[in-house]
Amino acid sequence: MMIFNKPLYIYLYPFPKKLTLTQKQILEKEFPFYKKLSNKKKIYFEHRVKGFLNYYEFIGKEELMITEEMKIIIAGTYIMLSFGMRHYLINIFKVIIIYPSAYFSNSNQQYHKGEFNPAMKTVAFSWEDFILGHQSTNDNINLGLHEFAHALHFHGMKSNDPSAILFYDEFNKVITYFKDENLNKKLSEQGYFREYAYENGFEFIAVILEHFFETPHLFKTQYPELYQHVSSMINFSEKNFDELQSS
User: Fold this and answer.
1) Which residue from 131, 173, 197, 203 has the least number of CB within 10 angstroms?
2) CA-CA distances (angstroms) from residue 89 to 5, 80, 113, 191?
3) What is the pLDDT confidence band of residue 168, given thresholds at 50, 70 and 90?
4) Which CDD domains match (predicted)?
5) Taken in order 50, 12, 82, 164, is the CA torsion positive or negative?
6) How many CA within 13 A on the CB side of residue 86?
């Protein structure tokens, strides 16, 4: 159900799932975003992280041992990106594959740092690059946000749940900045978004979401209209960004 082009409600958890103390401590340590949430929203965030851990399978490659911290950081990244969405668990992917470092992908016979493969229902990461992007919070490069953005984009194209509809409707406004030759040229010349954003529409939205989370105030100052479209696309609360930047 939608009202004013937004889901009628986002969080409705009469019996929220609980994380262990250790898991919550990892969130506190690794996510300023989570740390600055209200107590009520922390409960919602924890519930969603637990739901993510229960819903998706994690597989380590090349003898990589997947730790609880790795799973929490990956889950927290996805939940942060999708926190404004009513339906946050999507079946576009079912498995998360983690390699120690860049790996050779059979899908296109190239080395990758990460990829979303809808045919195989997988999201794959180089842990070395994932954690580097997670720890570098203002360079606008975040592998986890990037690949999960691809998954949410694909979900928006295929699903009719309210959050997917909202995502795709606003995406069509955002993508105008890529398709319009003059707007595209202007963005490219100004240099805020890295060049990889202009590869295609899928990369454009993924790179933009990296910038949206890592340097939101700069994004809003330089491109207020585009910023608002992206904010609406993921149904995100402006207040959460203000809290994040105050940490």
Assistant:
1) 173
2) 21, 13, 24, 34
3) very high
4) Peptidase_M90-like (cd20170)
5) positive
6) 18
What phi and psi values does residue 111 have, to the nearest 5 degrees?
-80, 140
Write b or e for each residue in 214-232: b if 16 or more Cβ atoms lie within 10 A of its Cβ, otherwise e. bbbeebbeebeebbebbbb
**In terms of residues, how long is the chain?**
247
**Closest to 166 (Cα-Cα) out of 226, 121, 209, 230:** 230
- Provide the token pair at 10: 């986002």
Distance in angstroms (rounded) separating the CA atoms of residues 105 and 75? 23
Q: Of 28-32, 108-112, 176-180, which range is least confident? A: 108-112
Phi-psi map region of 123: left, alpha, beta (phi>0 left; psi -120 to 50 alpha): beta
- C-alpha to C-alpha distance for 109 and 232, rounded to whole angstroms: 37
C-alpha to C-alpha distance for 124 and 147, rounded to whole angstroms: 8
Residue 246's pLDDT is what?
40
Phi, psi of 29 (to 5 degrees): -75, -40
Question: Residue 235 — φ and ψ, nearest 5°?
Answer: 50, 50
